Amino acid sequence: MNDSRISDISQDEVRMSELMTPGHANFLGNVFGGAIMSMMDHLAYVTASRYAKRVCVTASFDRVDFHSSIDVGELVHMVGRVVYVGRTSLQVQIEVYAENIQTGTTRHTNTCTTTMVAIDDAGKPVPVPKLECRTREQKINYLKGKMRRELAQRHREESQRLAAELEALTDEELNRKIAEANA
């Protein structure tokens, strides 16, 4: 069945909501950050896979920001958007909002960028459709995504280079560097 009201929904955005129950609570009585991260990962999967029309797997959580806590009893709304597409990977930006259902007040609680990779039945990366940027916001998000990807690549290369340098140091040199770091 194809409902025309559903066909108007953007293929690069997904929205999900869930009531936070005591099963989501941490030892302080707020919603456990891991529960929110799990929900973000599910939303990233749905958003990327729906866009790519392929199974997509999580390659990385490039950044997760926790702006404020979420209380048990609040309704959590998440919006996932494909903001950048490479050859086989997609960046999904996720925004999380908590709504107090008694007062109707809503606040932005989390932001996350996740990189997903489209795979075939053998688990090999496969190409994904190019992202069509229509609005100014989409164009800016796309260029930010490209920049994030390039910075991540440079960071990986620099981290590998520095790790190799540390591995090559003697124990005496390592001790001296630790003493300098603690000074």
Topology:
Layout: H1 4-7, E1 13-19, H2 33-52, E2 55-66, E3 75-85, E4 89-99, E5 106-119, H3 136-167, H4 171-181
Antiparallel strand pairs: 1-3, 2-5, 3-4, 4-5
Largest sheet: 5 strands, antiparallel
Please work out how many helical segments DSSP would assign: 4
Tell me the distance between the termini: 68 Å
Helical percent range? 25-40%
Question: Unreliable runs, pLDDT <50, ≥5 residues?
Answer: 3-8
Structural class: alpha+beta
Q: Order the strands across the largest sheet as they lie in space.
A: 1-3-4-5-2
Briefly characterize the structure.
This protein has 183 residues and is an alpha+beta fold. The chain is built from 4 helices and 5 strands; from the N terminus they run αβαββββαα. The model is unreliable at 3-8 (pLDDT under 50).
List keywords for this structure.
37% helix, single chain, alpha+beta, disordered N terminus, 183 residues
Describe it for me?
By secondary structure, this protein is α+β, with helices and mostly antiparallel strands. Helix content is 37%, strand content 30%. The protein is built from four helices and five strands; from the N terminus they run H-E-H-E-E-E-E-H-H. It has helices at residues 4-7, 33-52, 136-167, 171-181, and strands at residues 13-19, 55-66, 75-85, 89-99, 106-119. The chain has a five-stranded antiparallel sheet. Strand 3 and strand 4 form a beta hairpin.
